[in-house]
Amino acid sequence: MSQDQSRPSATGLDVLISGGSMGGLFTGIALARSGHNPTIYERSAGALESRGGGIVAQENIRRFLGDHDIVDPEAITTRSRERRFLTESGDVERAVSETMVFTSWDALYRQLRDAFPDERYRTGAEVTGVSPEAATAAVADETERTADLIVAAEGGQSTTRTQLYPDAEPEFASYVAWRGVVDEAALSAACVEAFDGTFTFYQGADQLILAYFIPGADGETEPGSRRLNWVWYDTLNGRDREAIFTDASGTERRFSVSPGRLRDPVRRRQRERAETLPPAFETLVADTPDPFVQAIYDLTVPAMVADRACLLGDAAFVARPHTGAGTAKAAGDATALADALASRGSVDDALAAWDRRRAEYGSALVDRGKQMGDERLNLR
Ligand SMILES: Cc1cc2nc3c(=O)[nH]c(=O)nc-3n(C[C@H](O)[C@H](O)[C@H](O)COP(=O)(O)OP(=O)(O)OC[C@H]3O[C@@H](n4cnc5c(N)ncnc54)[C@H](O)[C@@H]3O)c2cc1C
């Protein structure tokens, strides 16, 4: 039931979270820990299906896992000790000592999902519209639900964002990221040796590929059971975006084609293109069973709060993956929201402060991602 909006915001708010991926789960867990009553509405019918990709496990993600007694971050992360740049022929051009910590989307999602109670996580429950002033949401499986606060953690194609800010559209950056994951057990010893312990890059004239080890499909971190994750940023190379993003069923996708859904000619052409990569990367791409592709785009919103509705994570700002910060930003948005609600006198003050702080951060991150990507893909 909705509560008196003028009362202090410290505890007991009824919060409806739309979207049960990373942003929704970080928010649900952080708000529950602060004494609020979050319920997550996720439109997918069952557990979310992983795309299997890697994630940079930034410090704030690891802290979140530890602080909320979810899991020892060591148990679901891998490390590299060196950032290494290869020449086209595969020699090491430059190596810099640097520790990076990685995890996989599926390992992290599983831990967060297990930490949030089933009875407060509704599946097959799409939020179809919100009334921000009344903090009311229409949910596909119910008539209407009123809360004290609505948080839309609906990802880059958020319908709540479209409703609140119809002009805030994702802007295609004119290049894509081909991605893939290979089981360590399926790699040759030479390939494991080439990538083990390093965050490896090859920078071409209009392409950039990188690789790092991530935990195995069940979160295993020991050598032999991990997976090697690669991300290959490439221009369209004279192709139409539609040609790449029409999947095996003939459906034109807007932003990504999932593992196993690329059309054969698209896959073949990208394999041919891999001949321009250093040999270790060429083999890695060729040996990947189910590569996938996602469009690189930028997204900003004018504000993250409209009355009693918030946009959080990718629903608000999408920064290019070069920043390695998409999931960390969702975690940061969530903890900052819980902190603001705990430290401010009223919900309105808390939301205004959170909006200022996190919108500034999101906007700066998007700018940084644009600069990094355009430089690396030679698009300036
Ligand atoms: C299944 C899946 C796999 C992913 N795999 C990877 C990966 O391997 N590597 C990587 O770097 N990033 C991956 N991502 C993206 C990554 O999670 C995000 O970029 C980042 O973590 C921010 O998360 P988010 O929760 O804001 O958005 P998202 O992760 O995009 O989640 C949005 C969620 O909201 C739900 N939703 C959308 N609209 C509604 C609605 N109206 N009502 C109810 N629910 C709604 C969606 O079904 C989805 O679960 C994946 C996302 C998903 C959904």
TrEMBL record:
Residues 172-298 form the 2,6-dihydroxypyridine 3-monooxygenase substrate binding domain. Pfam families: FAD_binding-like. This is 2,6-dihydroxypyridine 3-monooxygenase substrate binding domain-containing protein.
